[in-house]
Amino acid sequence: MTFLLITLAVLITLALYHHVGYLLLLKLFSNSKPIEMTENTQPSTHFGILMCAYNEQEHIAEKLYNLGSMLYSTELYTIHVYLDGCTDKTYDEAMLAQSHLAKQNVVCHLHFSKVNKGKSFGINELIKLSKPNYDVLLFTDVSALLSIDVLNKIDADFKDPNINVITGVYILDDLATAEQQQYWQYQNKVKSMESSLGAVIGVPGAMFAIRSAHAALLDENTINDDFIISMKALNQGGKAVVNSEINIVERECDEQSHDYARRVRLGAGNWQQIKMLFELLNPKLGWVSFNYFSHKVLRGVMPIILLLIYALLFSLALSSSLLIPKVVCVAIVCTHGLGVAKKAFNIRAKLPIVDSVNYIVSAYFMALWGIVKFERGDYNQHWQRVHQTQESNKIFIKTIKRTIDVVGSAVGLILLSPVMLAVALVIKLTSKGPVLFKQLRVGQSDDDFVALFNVLKFRSMVVDAEAKSGAVWASKDDPRITAVGRFIRKTRLDELPQLWNVLIGEMSLIGPRPERPVFYSKLEKDIPYFCQRTYGIKPGISGLAQVMNGYDESIDDARNKIGWDYAYMLSTSSARSWCYMEFTIFFKTLAVIFTGKGQ
Predict the structure, then answer these.
(1) Closest Cα to residue 541, out of 591, 499, 596?
(2) Secondary structure of residue 519 in the 3-state scheme
(3) What letter would DSSP give residue 18?
(4) Parallel, antiparallel, or unpaired for β 77-84 and 47-53?
(5) What angle do CA 104, 109, 112 make, to 5 degrees?
(6) Residue 335 pLDDT more than 50?
(7) What is the pLDDT at residue 155?
(8) Percent of the chain having pLDDT more than 70?
(9) pLDDT 10s digits, 560-581
């Protein structure tokens, strides 16, 4: 117990330091030693502006016109665009914009690849081409617009020979979600304070500039290319700063589901960065080393720290008599429960603290999934845009669903064990026969295989209920159902042993109802595509069809359920719609249990 408490205290201290203590230290030291930017002088820096483009037909022309309008001598900067196997009209749009820029004496080179080789490959090609020819390399994204005086300001800042990296203030489009806006407002404040110490940790990929002498090539499987490039420029010393007068406007904002998917990738990238940039922990680098550990190393391991904190808190709440862990766990459940309720019932009312906590925690658990994906090798392939990875979205949903199943069933078995023991005892005392009832059911199916498993239930009927009649549908006033069985069926308590089926992977907490093989051939004959209801999905203890229709009593009931099962399957095509569907079913299930509306 003492060891658990000490471990919990250390983990909470690290979490508080990363989120609060580090900021207090930055405020304490950053105000005392501000960095003074150099006054504007005659421009002399030769810039190579580099960007990779993959299917950017909506933005590429506007981006090039934006770069062509810089208030800087056109003789002192050149644009290089790597078109990475685009399959849309990006190349055509870029060619048209290139011709217009030529009339303005702006040099723009288009480097075309027929095959999509990934962003890291493209960046490396651009660095190889441009590093020997320019004083400064400016990296930017197609989707971001820059203030037209950005080159003048960067030129002036680089008059300080100690500065190796410069970036600006990242501003999201008004269409971005409130959570994304708040996140970047927080990040900009942190980077501003780090900048006063000359040690900005991480720059927005939308725009940053580094001295070409410090531009290093990337490993092929690099995830957060902007972070690795900018931080490698500080390996041998030097400063990274934010010029608060440079605005970087991001036009392309993710939907919430895409934002979560991006956070999965960022979580993997943060984990990878710890391994790739271990040399930055050298104390000789001063504030760079300190800020890197406090900001990025702790951010990379924070998903694991948070998971351990939750696990220890709930373990102590369940296994000890200490009051504080119990109170904290109740607060955690209430906070996340409110978040779930808001999504399930589409409640738009703002709960500032609750909303912020849920957003941060969910982002960390997305990042945790990113770490898992990285360690199993999912990021060995090249970069793709978030909204173009539908298959990974499905895999993501399945993995999160399985994680919820394992955690939910394990917790359920522990917390509901007194209820299950009571039900078992009542069944044993009121009727002859075993407490548990096993019945063969059809599980998940795919093109080559259909799973069969024995579902576990508390016995609600007399022993050998089908000995004379054979397999038949249960009816509303079925005489085979015992008095106790009638109650546990109405409250769905008879389904509780199926938590074990969920834990071992035969079922899910939520999904289509598992059907009996003996009825399957007839149902498939009478209901076209009936077998597709569990294609790629495990059957569930509860589900949309179950909470909307109850138990099946006939083929007509099964036919009515098909629409609900298909609706659930369709929801798995989008993380956002799946979350909404999952939460809706969860709360409807609770309503069935507590109102006794089950059959």
Answers:
(1) 499
(2) helix
(3) I
(4) parallel
(5) 140
(6) yes
(7) 95
(8) 83
(9) 666 677 677 767 766 667 777 8
Mean pLDDT value across residues 532-554: 72
- CA torsion sign for 251, 252, 255, 256 is negative
How many alpha carbons fall within 13 Å on the CB side of residue 92?
A: 5
Share of the chain above pLDDT 90, in %: 48
Half-sphere exposure of 388 (CA within 13 A, CB side): 8
Mean pLDDT of the chain: 84
Q: Which pair of structure tokens corresponds to residue 296?
A: 């990025």
pLDDT at position 324: 92
3-state SS class at 248: strand
- 352-375 and 256-276 are packed helices; what angle lies between their axes, rounded to 10 degrees? 50
Find all residues with CB under 8 Å of 531, minimum gap 6, and list them: 445, 450, 520, 524
Of 8-22, 224-238, 381-395, 400-414, the range with the lowest mean pLDDT is 381-395
Phi, psi of 542 (to 5 degrees): -125, 170
* Measured distance CA(489)–CA(129) in Å, rounded: 72
Task: Note the pLDDT tens digit of each residue in 98-132.
Answer: 999 999 999 999 999 989 888 999 999 999 999 99
Those residues with Cβ within 8 angstroms of residue 378's Cβ, 6 or more apart along the chain or in another chain:
268, 392
Angle between helices 517-526 and 555-571 (to 10 degrees): 90
Q: Are 90 and 57 in contact (CB under 8 A)?
A: yes
What is the C-alpha to C-alpha distance for residues 550 and 545, in angstroms, rounded to an integer?
7
What is the Cα–Cα distance from 589 to 567, expressed in whole angstroms?
17
The string of DSSP codes covering 181-246 is HHHHHHHHHHHHHHHHTTB-----TTEEEEEGGG--PPPTT-S-HHHHHHHHTTTTS-EEEEEEEE
Closest CA to 127 of 138, 117, 142: 138
Phi, psi of 475 (to 5 degrees): -110, 170
Q: Which two tokens stand for residue 348?
A: 């738009």
Report the candidate in 457, 490, 493, 473 with the shortest Cα–Cα distance to residue 599: 490
Residues facing residue 172 across a β-bridge? 250
Q: For tokens 């300190």, name the residue.
A: 290
Name the residue type at position 278: F
CA distance 119 to 224: 10
Rounded distance, CA 489 to CA 425, Å? 16
How many Cβ atoms are within 10 Å of 571's Cβ, its own excluded? Answer: 20
Instruction: Give how far Cα 547 sits from Cα of 431, 484, 510, 540, 593, Å.
Output: 29, 22, 11, 12, 10
Token digits of residue 385:
């845009």
C-alpha 502/C-alpha 406 separation (Å) is 7
Q: Which phi and psi angles does 144 have, rounded to 5°?
A: -110, 140
Look at residue 249 and tell me whether its pLDDT is greater than 60.
yes
Strand pairing class (207-211; 136-140): antiparallel
Q: 138 - beta bridge partners?
A: 49, 209
